[in-house]
């Protein structure tokens, strides 16, 4: 089943960047530069933009104005407009660090990670020890799935600054993305240890998700509960708790959290299917069927169809179960469980030959499965 893993709740902390140092002076250019950057620091973007545009009228190639306008656009989320200002600044002032930084960040925001890397590498030629840029480079390598260079760069940052939050967070994501959940856990535990009481909710859900993946469900539960203590409707914490209880075969608790998600997201087909699974485990078959059918009314979901088939099977409605299972074979022809469930239904109907036939069909696919093989041996 499609999951809701941590990559959908990526911990991206904002790397602060100081504005450029403006030379002392009382002339109009200096005053407008100071005014614009003060407004920018305060988040008063309209006034900052007005000051920088007035400055451009005085000096059309002024680097403070061009970078400032790029920063205003970037803070507004207008990244293509921001790149135009930064590029214009670099045409006039090719080595301007602030324009390089802003341009790379804008490319990153647009998902153009390879371009961002080119710019950051250019920046590092001038300022090779800049920790903020090094962590951004490591992040970009992670986004383009270059594990080796990303890890090397994060570790480089941590060698220089052992507790760097951005490197620890990024390294955790890197390991998580490549399914090394134990190492991811170590990185996020270091972040958590710095401030256990005030830990960022995204760090808490990351820790919980690592335990989910490692099947150490009981250890993941406290992290998700910490999130819910202050954010009772946090989707990722509710999902994490429900899935942990599901993994521990505690269907009643699992159902409670699935239902809490459905209270504010009633048309989520994945959650409806998971709720159906919990209800089926509790032998509340009529309610399970309703939940599966709600999911299927939204969109086809293989697991909802499988759940519905298992409801039919539990009710001893074997022909209906077989029909549902046959319907999903074309979408998931390599799933051994479908063949096994169908074979069991045929055996309940005393159709041993059909059971053998369906198991043989799976074996002909060249996939080894001990349960299918054992069942086939018993039938023979």
Explained architecture:
The structure is a single chain. With 380 residues, this protein is an all-alpha fold. It has helices at 28-42, 45-58, 63-75, 79-92, 97-109, 113-126, 131-143, 147-160, 165-177, 181-194, 201-214, 217-230, 235-247, 251-264, 269-281, 285-298, 302-314, 318-329, 336-348, 352-363, 370-379. Among the domains are: 26-127, Serine Threonine Protein Phosphatase 5, Tetratricopeptide repeat (Alpha Horseshoe), CATH 1.25.40; 129-194, Serine Threonine Protein Phosphatase 5, Tetratricopeptide repeat (Alpha Horseshoe), CATH 1.25.40.10; 333-380, no CATH class. The protein has 21 helices and no strands. Helix 18 (318-329) packs antiparallel against helix 19 (336-348). The two termini are 33 Å apart. Residues 2-16 have low confidence and may be disordered.
Can you describe this structure in just a few lines?
With 380 residues, the chain is mostly helical. Helices cover 73% and strands 0% of the residues. It contains 21 helices and no strands.
């Amino acid at each position: 089943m499609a999951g809701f893993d941590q990559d959908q709740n990526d911990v991206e902390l904002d790397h602060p960047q100081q504005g450029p140092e403006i030379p002392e002076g009382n002339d109009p250019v200096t005053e407008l530069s100071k005014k614009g950057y003060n407004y920018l620091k305060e988040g008063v973007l309209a006034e900052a933009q007005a000051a920088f545009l007035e400055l451009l009228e005085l000096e059309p190639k002024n680097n403070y104005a061009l970078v400032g306008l790029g920063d205003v656009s970037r803070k507004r989320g207008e990244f293509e407009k921001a790149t135009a200002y930064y590029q214009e600044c670099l045409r006039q002032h090719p080595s301007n660090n602030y324009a390089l930084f802003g341009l790379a960040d804008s490319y990153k925001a647009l998902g153009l990670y390879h371009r961002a890397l080119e710019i950051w590498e250019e920046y590092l030629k001038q300022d090779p020890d800049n920790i903020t840029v090094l962590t951004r480079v490591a992040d970009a390598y992670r986004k383009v799935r270059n594990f080796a260079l990303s890890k090397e760069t994060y570790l480089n940052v941590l060698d220089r600054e052992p507790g760097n939050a951005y490197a620890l967070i990024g390294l955790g994501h890197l390991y998580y993305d490549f399914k090394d959940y134990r190492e991811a856990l170590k990185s996020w535990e270091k972040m958590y240890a710095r401030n256990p009481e005030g830990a960022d909710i995204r760090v808490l859900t990351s820790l919980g998700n690592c335990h989910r993946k490692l099947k150490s469900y009981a250890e993941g539960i406290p992290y998700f509960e910490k999130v819910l203590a202050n954010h009772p409707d946090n989707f990722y914490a509710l999902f994490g708790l429900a899935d942990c209880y599901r993994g521990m075969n505690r269907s009643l608790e699992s159902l409670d959290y699935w239902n809490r998600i459905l209270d504010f997201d009633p048309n989520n087909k994945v959650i409806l299917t998971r709720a159906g699974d919990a209800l089926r485990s509790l032998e509340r078959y009529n309610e399970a069927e309703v939940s599966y059918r709600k999911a299927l009314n939204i969109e086809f979901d293989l697991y909802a169809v499988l759940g519905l088939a298992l409801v039919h099977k539990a009710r001893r409605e074997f022909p209906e179960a077989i029909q549902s299972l046959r319907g999903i074979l074309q979408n998931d022809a390599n799933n051994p469980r479908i063949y096994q469930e169908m074979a069991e239904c045929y055996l309940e109907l005393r159709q041993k030959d059909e059971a053998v036939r369906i198991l043989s069909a799976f074996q002909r696919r060249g996939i080894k499965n001990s349960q299918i093989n054992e069942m086939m041996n018993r039938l023979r």
